[in-house]
Amino acid sequence: QHIWFGMAREMAHQLGTPVSSLMGWVERLRDHPEESSQLAADMNTDVMRLQEISERFSRMGSVPKMEPLAVTPLLEELKSYFEKRLPANSREIVLSVESGDEIVKASPTLLTWALENLIKNAIDSIDKERGEVKLKSDKDGSHISITVQDNGKGIFRRDWKNIFRPGYTTKERGWGVGLSMVQRIVEDFLSGTIGIKASEVGKGTSIELKLPGTVEKQK
Question: What is the pLDDT of residues 155-165, one digit of tens each?
Answer without folding.
Answer: 999 888 888 87
